[in-house]
Amino acid sequence: EGTKKRKVEVAAHGKEPRPSGGGGLSVEEGERALSEEEAALYDRQIRLWGLDAQKRMRNARVLLFSLRGILTEVCKNLVLAGVGSVTIMDSAHVSMTDLSAQFFLHETEVGSKRAEAAVPRIKALNPKVEVVCEVVDIESKHEQELQTFDVICVSGCNLKTLTRLDSICRKHGIAFYSTDSYGLYAYVYADLNGHNYALEESKDDQEKKKQAEEAAQPTLKKARTDFVATVEPVNPVLSVTSSSLEDLVTRINWAHPTMRRVSKQFFALQGIYFSIF
Question: Is-above-0.90 flag for pTM?
Fold first, then answer.
């Protein structure tokens, strides 16, 4: 009975508009609804993050540039989760190095285009997801071509390219991710343009929070606040904003003493370790 109820809910609310959650995932009037088959296929994750989140994923268009180790795992997770469309953009050729971190490739495909070799196996993961292959470099793409995506994830780009892509994404409300790995080291940069989310709290949680705050107040402050009527929001909306990549690179004094820096001894020990082993 619970499964039937979920299927009915999908059919009834498939076209219902929803507010934008930020990060480029805004819903348009002609959004594609979940079918009953998809509701059954994604039933577990719908129970985890809700029907509305699954509908947003179903209508999301994601661009992945440079299908190397990290984005290979990202691609696999996105396709299995049921996003609407994934575009694989990569102009590189398959090398022997790729085989150690790319489970979509085979040694017989060394020398062929990396995107073309990987796409057939990616499609086999979930036939309900549209997988598009583009054997081009992202630097050749114009702003008008990139603004059609909801999420852009890139790897292996230089700072100039990353800054340009981040500026385009911020201009059009597109979620932007940049990541790469260098042996034992890796980084990830996320620019979601700022977004709002609701913190759901039960009445019991709100009462406990209020009691804890009152207990932490000084006696005189308690006496003053007793005369002030305060109203606790049931679901307070929290806002998160992020700085552009250009601001982070050019306007922050990374040499300031308050910045956390890795000790030089750490890199010295790493060099000794690799020279021995």
Answer: no
